[in-house]
């Protein structure tokens, strides 16, 4: 530690210890009342939470979603009760509410979701919080150019997830010195010890190798935590990792550091004596002042975005929909400076590069780490700070399915574009061919799926996606295809257009029809039912003949 660290006064340190013990008590009581939850995972993190929330972070406790506030991401989402307890200590949640944890009519869910204004991204599927925190830190540093900082708490067991290391790589590559990752190294996972147990030196070496400014501390010593967080605030050009050695179930006699206590509330007949023991260590009721944030976040507009001009394509002209996507993004970027684009080293295939050429300062290269790219997009879009579009081959989004699923639980507004859809990429072979993607995205609650059939409808899809809440998926194709629509054509979500259809004999009882817009089920005037997966559709009804019809 540098000698200039302004050591807090002893009474402040004691107050931080006391807050930590109150966080333990709240977590134990709440999980006991709900009969489920993870009190031991909360207890290991109590001092970390106390120091982060009541010493390091700057925020308005009455306005948890304020854009100038520092952000906190609880990546180990199962420790939600300690997060709720911190907001109760900060005065935002009323203490009795904590006892409604996990009840059907209470927003204090078992794992945090943005139903709560102090939660930016849902967590609970481990390994995803740091990627989102990277997106928030990138947005703070490069788009908002504001002084808010981002804190992320991870479990040690959680750090076995590869996506954690994708995020660590991203954080140092982009020099996110406004980002702090805190590893709660309590030795234990769910069913056994985490692989590195308490070997904090290996964590340190790994984080340093990933380019992070790294400190190892005793995670139950508030002074050490204050020191490491102060050091982090002084760092330029590197994110900070704090490896905090802790004990799971800290403070609970007979449970601390013991196996088989993960995800178990304390037995009801033992709770009073456990709480008495912890209360016995509390010396003060001192309320610590919370530092206010610097209000330097710019005013922005992320609603009602319009294209500056109609599509410039001519009917019959051959344009790949993937290229139309890139052209549309570049155009959209001209009208709104909060449009940002991410891609996973495929920008010359997805044509996201056309946006990069037009607006290089708003393009984020995420390299070949699709899970992290989705999480970074979620972080960028949190608090509606940006309108984020992220692209790769549609096939590769399938490996980020869980991140996309969590994005829906996060109520996120992000736009994903998958190129090289379907068999039309032919010679590249099946590894590059997106076949399952459309089914995958259609399982995501609230997701809008666009499968445009030409350049004009692609441009409209981009603009509609930018204005549509929830996750949007735009599916583009590699080959050049003829433009079908005029500049004036209007498009709406949920409305299919039948530009023309040609029924060709396929089998006696089925035909093939081409439709311009993705639609599940279409009842044509002549009462044929069409089931469509993208542009090619099968007619299910038996048809006596095979009409051709232009509409
Ligand atoms: C991706 C994923 N896999 C598995 C789980 C189930 N799970 C919940 S908590 C946990 C153990 C987490 O251990 P650690 O990260 O060390 O956190 P601790 O509770 O020890 O603080 C597991 C396996 C999960 N929530 N997410």
Oligomer: single chain
Instruction: Tell me the fraction of residues in β-strands, as a range.
Output: 15-25%
Radius of gyration: 26 Å
Categorize the overall geometry: elongated
- How many β strands by DSSP? 20
Fold and architecture overview:
The structure is a single chain. The protein has helices at 10-34, 39-44, 46-56, 80-89, 129-143, 162-173, 200-209, 222-234, 268-279, 321-335, 347-350, 353-358, 370-381, 394-397, 401-409, 437-442, 455-466; strands spanning 71-74, 150-155, 179-185, 213-218, 240-245, 318-320, 339-343, 363-365, 387-393, 414-419, 448-450, 472-475, 480-482, 500-502, 504-507, 510-514, 521-523, 529-533, 536-539, 548-550. It is α/β, with parallel strands linked by helices and 551 residues long. The strands form five sheets. Strands 8-7-9-10-12-11 form a six-stranded parallel beta sheet, with helices on both faces. Strands 1-2-3-5-4 form a five-stranded parallel beta sheet, with helices on both faces. A five-stranded antiparallel beta sheet has the order 15-16-19-18-17, with no helix packed on it. The longest helix has 25 residues, at 10-34. The structure holds thiamine diphosphate (TPP). Thiamine diphosphate (TPP) is lined by residues 38, 41, 44, 76, 78, 124-127, 155-158, 184, 186, 188-190, 194, 248, 262.
């Amino acid at each position: 530690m540098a000698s200039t660290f302004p050591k807090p006064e002893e009474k402040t340190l004691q107050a931080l210890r006391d807050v930590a013990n109150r966080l333990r008590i709240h977590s134990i009581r709440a999980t006991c009342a709900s009969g489920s939850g993870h009190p031991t995972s909360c207890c290991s993190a109590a001092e970390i939470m106390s120091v982060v929330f009541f010493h390091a972070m700057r925020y308005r406790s009455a306005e948890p979603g304020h854009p100038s506030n520092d952000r906190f991401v609880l990546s180990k989402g199962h420790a939600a009760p300690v997060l709720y307890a911190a907001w109760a200590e900060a005065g935002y949640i009323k203490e009795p509410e904590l006892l409604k944890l996990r009840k059907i009519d209470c927003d204090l869910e078992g794992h945090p979701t943005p139903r709560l204004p102090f939660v930016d991204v849902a967590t609970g599927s481990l390994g995803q919080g740091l990627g989102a925190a990277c997106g928030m830190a990138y947005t703070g540093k490069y788009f908002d150019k504001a002084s808010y900082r981002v804190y992320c708490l991870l479990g040690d067991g959680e750090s076995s997830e590869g996506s954690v290391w994708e995020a660590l790589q991203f954080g140092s590559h982009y020099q996110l010195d406004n980002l702090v990752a805190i590893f709660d190294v309590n030795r234990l996972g769910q069913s056994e010890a985490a692989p590195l147990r308490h070997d904090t030196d290996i964590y340190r070496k790994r984080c340093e190798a990933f380019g992070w400014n790294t400190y190892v501390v005793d995670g139950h010593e508030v002074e050490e935590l204050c020191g490491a967080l102060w050091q982090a605030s002084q760092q330029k050009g590197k994110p900070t990792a704090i490896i905090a050695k802790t004990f799971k179930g800290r403070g609970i006699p007979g449970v601390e550091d013991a196996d088989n206590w993960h995800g178990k509330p304390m037995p009801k007949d033992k709770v009073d004596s456990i709480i008495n023991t912890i209360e016995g260590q509390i010396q003060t009721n001192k309320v610590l002042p919370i530092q206010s944030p610097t209000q330097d976040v710019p005013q922005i507009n992320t609603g009602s975005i319009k294209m500056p001009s109609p599509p410039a394509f001519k009917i019959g002209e051959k344009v790949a929909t993937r290229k139309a996507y890139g052209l549309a993004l570049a155009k959209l970027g001209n009208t709104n400076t909060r449009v940002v684009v991410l891609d996973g080293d495929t920008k010359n295939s997805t044509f996201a590069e056309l946006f990069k050429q037009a607006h290089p300062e708003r393009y984020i290269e995420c390299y070949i780490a699709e899970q992290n790219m989705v999480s970074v997009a979620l972080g960028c879009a949190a608090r509606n700070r940006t309108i984020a579009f992220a692209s790769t081959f549609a096939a590769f989004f399938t490996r980020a399915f869980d991140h996309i699923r969590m994005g829906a639980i996060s109520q996120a507004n992000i736009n994903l574009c998958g190129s090289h859809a379907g068999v039309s990429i032919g010679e590249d072979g099946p590894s590059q061919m997106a076949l399952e993607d459309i089914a995958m995205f259609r399982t995501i609650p609230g997701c809008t799926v666009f499968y445009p059939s030409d350049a004009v409808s692609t441009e409209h899809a981009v603009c509609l996606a930018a204005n549509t809440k929830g996750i949007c998926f735009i599916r583009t194709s590699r080959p050049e295809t003829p433009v079908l629509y005029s500049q004036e054509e209007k498009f709406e979500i949920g409305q299919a257009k039948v530009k023309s259809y040609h029924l060709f004999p396929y089998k006696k009882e089925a035909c093939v029809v081409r439709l311009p817009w993705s639609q599940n089920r279409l009842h044509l005037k002549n009462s044929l039912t069409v089931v469509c997966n993208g542009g090619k559709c099968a007619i299910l009804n038996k048809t006596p003949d095979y009409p051709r019809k232009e509409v």
